Amino acid sequence: MGSERFKLRQRKMAKKKLEKLFDNADTTLIIHYACESFFKKNDGKAPRISSISVKNLGNGSNKSFSIYHMAEREGIPPNKIFDNYEKLEKKMLDEFFDYVSEHLGYTWAHWNMRSINFGFQALEHRYRVLGGAPKIIPDTRKVDISDLMVKIYGVGYAEKPVLANITKMNGIISDFFMEGAREAEAFEKGEFLKIQQSNMKKVDFIGYVAEKALDGSLKTKNKWYKYPGMHPRIIVEVIKENWIYGIIALVVLALSLARGFSWLFQSSHQ
Description:
The chain is built from ten helices and five strands; from the N terminus they run H-E-E-E-H-H-E-H-E-H-H-H-H-H-H. The protein is an alpha/beta fold. It has two domains: 15-221, 2-Layer Sandwich (Nucleotidyltransferase, domain 5); 231-268, no CATH class.
């Protein structure tokens, strides 16, 4: 029971963090990025970055840093991007980390960007490799939306790849959206505009998922009674400690029973 209480506390804290993001939406940024496949890398080098998208949760503005746009600005045709990649990537990351330095006090919401393989550390490392000096976002300013979803809805709330499948379950679809593996394939083909469009769509999707989770309308594979901390004994204790929840629970139960009897009555007369 101790572990269930701990999970319930974690769930409550996760929901509070989610509420705080939207309470401070104007200073909350959603970030996601795309890079070449780190599974197929065999040259010992860090994966090259192709696109970074940052969306302001409050006003919805989307800032894009991409190889495609940088090449266009530098007058380099798409078929010459790979020949000039590191120069373009360095310029792109220069602009991104300038943006970071101006927004260090903001909250940076992300989707599983927590490791040197894929995450803030990976961006910082790649920039250092190219000769840059990255501005470091404090860990206290980072919020992993994917982690909050697990703490609220439990492990396995959606099939993997989770972001692609949870959005489909909730009717959020786009022709621009590509899963990570598809983005890696697009990188090898030099389809950098498609990668940028996909990456920009992902920050939108992360925001949609967070909003649906906040208002309680997010559809998942897990039923409510399988959410973390929702053990029957814990629920009974909560009801005992908070009588108003007990009344609400009884009302919900009564309505459920009423619907059941109504359905049976209608069925018996068909």
